Here is the input.
Amino acid sequence: MEVKDFDYELPLELIAQVPLEKRDSSRLMVVDRKTGNIKHQKFSDILSYLHQGDVLVLNDTKVLPARLLGEKVDTHAAIEVLLLKNIEQDKWETLVKPARRIKVGTIISFGEGLLTAECTAIGEEGIREFEFSYQGIFYEILDKLGSMPLPPYIHAKLEDKNRYQTVYAKEEGSAAAPTAGLHFTNELLDAIRKKGVTICSITLHVGLGTFRPVKVEKIEEHQMHSEFYQMSKETAEILNHAKKNHQRIISVGTTSTRTLESIMQKYGKFQECSNFTDIFIYPGYQFLAIDGLITNFHLPKSTLVMLVSAFATREIILNAYRTAVKEGYRFFSFGDSMFLTTDINA
Here is the structure.
């Protein structure tokens, strides 16, 4: 299967540059993943498509202000460092620009020495490992010196950094937001609970895979970058009960989906665990965990388009995307949403 098979034409003006004033006022395309039938709604209408007994799974990861601007201590050359993954204690995997300037032993200073980092290992394509040194609490210093790592296709300034967080973000560690969750408000979540839907959380810290394009021609040759996930005992019990009783499990976002599918693949059931996953889901994959998926509109030829194509079909997804372009939907992180399910008659 070739990467070009997951391409589509997208006018640049449809790439959302800023979030809407109200989170749940975005548009919602409801797509029957078996028939391809489409309905156009507002995101707040998701309530009509969720039923008593459903289980909604959220990714409660919290985006770090992970982009740091510093300078080499010896030459004062400007360096940008994006934190990707906490390896252990004060050691981090990062993406560096310009990476060619950074060798093992290179020291970078941020905030006039408030934070320093020494390169301890070199990886491919701009990856560097750093050990950070500081006085105080790392995340407080990061909050002071860092900025939100918005995707490269967003050029507008984000006025309120909380708009690149879900309202339920809790576990710090992501280099990007699980954007399908940005549409939910606390009021909408309360209304969902009142309808008899159980809401539970997992954690997957979004890392390098978000920033890396697929560079191979055959998708089977693409290697996903690993990301940390965890599931609590409480969530595992809720999901196992749902499976046993044939209740729908609806995943909010591709990150939640990859976590749930990774756990089911590894254990054959849901259970309390933490690990790293590099699962790559593309057409032909047999889903074990989820029955519905709430997701945004993704970049052409991306692994995320491949994932949603696996959950429906490539033809259904590409038709939905062509329809979204025709109807003027907003795309990507701050854009509109899609609900892939069956029997879309609310």
